[in-house]
Amino acid sequence: MADQVVAHLESVEALITVYLKVLNKQDRIAIWPLITEQIANTSNRLERQVEVINVEMTALKTPAMITEAMRMRDDLRKVIENLAGAQKELEQAETSIP
């Protein structure tokens, strides 16, 4: 699951890197919907992984495994929040570009 999360985040990172290198405002406006769609898709995938962890926790028996699963779930939730925050920061930065 961790590998999937990394792959999803790397795809968002790549799009944002491209976005930041585009200097023309019209081009940035044109690619912005693609980026926001990818961020939304990644957030949805991470939400589904949180759900999977919740289901799998019901089958866990040892406290250490349950604790680790809960930590993983909480980390995923933080990543989702960070994605939303990054998107808002990009939107604010966009308004300052001439």
Task: Describe the protein's architecture and organization.
This protein is mainly α and 98 residues long. The protein has 3 helices and no strands. The longest helix is centred in the middle third of the chain and has 33 residues. The mean pLDDT is 86.
Kindly summarize this structure in a few lines.
The chain is mainly alpha-helical. The chain contains 3 helices and no strands. It has one domain (2-95).
Percentage of residues in strands = under 5%
**Number of separate domains:** 1
Strand tally is 0
Shape: elongated
How far from one another are the termini? 41 Å
**Helical fraction:** over 70%
**Tally of DSSP helical segments:** 3
Q: Major sheet, described briefly? A: none
Mean pLDDT: 86
- Uncertain residue ranges: none
Alpha carbon gyration radius: 17 Å
Task: Quickly give the structural class.
Answer: mainly alpha
The succession of helices and strands, N to C, reads HHH
Write the layout of secondary structure elements.
Elements: H1 2-21, H2 25-57, H3 63-95
Helix pairs in contact: 1-2, 2-3
Notable features of this structure?
98 residues, mainly alpha, 0% strand, elongated
